[in-house]
Amino acid sequence: MLVDSAPGMTVVGEAGTGREAVERARSCRADLVVMDIRMPDLDGIEATRRIAADDDLAGVRVLVLTTYDTDEHVVEALRAGASGFLVKDTRPADLLDGIRTVAAGDALLSPGPTARLIARALRAPAVPAADGALPAALDRLSGRERQVLALVARGLNNAEIAAALSLSPLTAKTHVSRIMGKLAARDRAQLVILAYESGLITPGANGAP
Fold this sequence. Notes:
single chain; mainly alpha; Rossmann fold; 10 helices; 3 strands
């Protein structure tokens, strides 16, 4: 009822299990899936992973809902491909804003409560790639691109990155797009995760949340 009442939004399908969520994402061609972490017959993390790994669903974004912002599975959902998360007691207006911003690609990474939640979730130690793939991937970035990535991880949008580095907004946007391409990231949420997991930035350092 909430989503259908919002201008420009339509519920195209509903699912009671994780497996159904993946099937509905494929059959309904949704732009965005609001995913519960805790569901029967395939939890939300695995469902998110399958959606993110499906080439036919490359444009579908996943917004995860969790009961508590300390849910230990939040970071797993982000690593699986979720573009952001909200706690279930989020106000209706904020939920709609979250849907709009995740659909736009960078919504829940703006400075504020959600950025702090993401940073807190990412304090969980990452499992480093056996072959050092993450740090090696960062070697593909120029010095300027590393600066931009660090600012993305802090939750800055393109305009704020441009102001911080004395760039034009278009140049900042171009840098972000190139970084996504070089790191094979789906969206800005994935860039944040890569920045933390690679050690480029750590919670509480260099102004991070």
